[in-house]
Amino acid sequence: MYSDSKSCKIYRKPNSVLKKQGFTLFELVVVVIIVGILAALGLPQYNKVTEKGRGAEAKVVLGLINKAQMFYNQEYGGYTSNLTALSVSAPTSCVSTHHFYYSTDASVATATRCTDQGQPPQGSTAFNVTLTYSNGTWGGSTGYY
Predict the structure, then answer these.
(1) pLDDT tens for residues 30-55?
(2) How many beta carbons lie within 10 A of that of residue 68, not counting itself?
């Protein structure tokens, strides 16, 4: 056995400095800048996809109007300009449940983007989606079809 008491001591480095854990201000600024750049690149794409989804609402309702017009044409021999005669639930003015309001005449159904419900479209405010009854083709603003 060792009788020397010095051999049982635990030796440490003299004057060892413990490293403080955390982030420096520079590292935090770099991270904030990177997140800002990613947000600046992603937000316009998000808005574009959101508007495209809202345009899908118009296509669905116009498709329902189109089918109703086809049934009306088979039954009465012509198209109607009255949405209530078609029994299609489509708003004729801006409401909070839809992003478009709808109108029809004997040959064209139109979906016009609402701009007064606090959700205006990105870019131009004149977004329309139209459906022509004679041949069933889609027409309207770029980005919706």
Answers:
(1) 999 999 999 999 988 888 888 888 88
(2) 20
Length of the chain: 145
Tell me which H or E stretch contains 138.
Answer: strand 138-140
What is the distance between the alpha carbons of residues 93 and 88, in angstroms, rounded to a whole number?
Answer: 14
Q: How far apart are CA 51 and CA 124, in angstroms?
A: 12
Q: Which residues are CB-contacts of 81 (< 8 A; sequence separation ≥ 6)?
A: 104, 105, 106
Q: What is the DSSP letter of 144?
A: -
pTM above 0.90, yes or no: no
Give the pLDDT of residue 16: 59
Radius of gyration of the chain (CA): 33
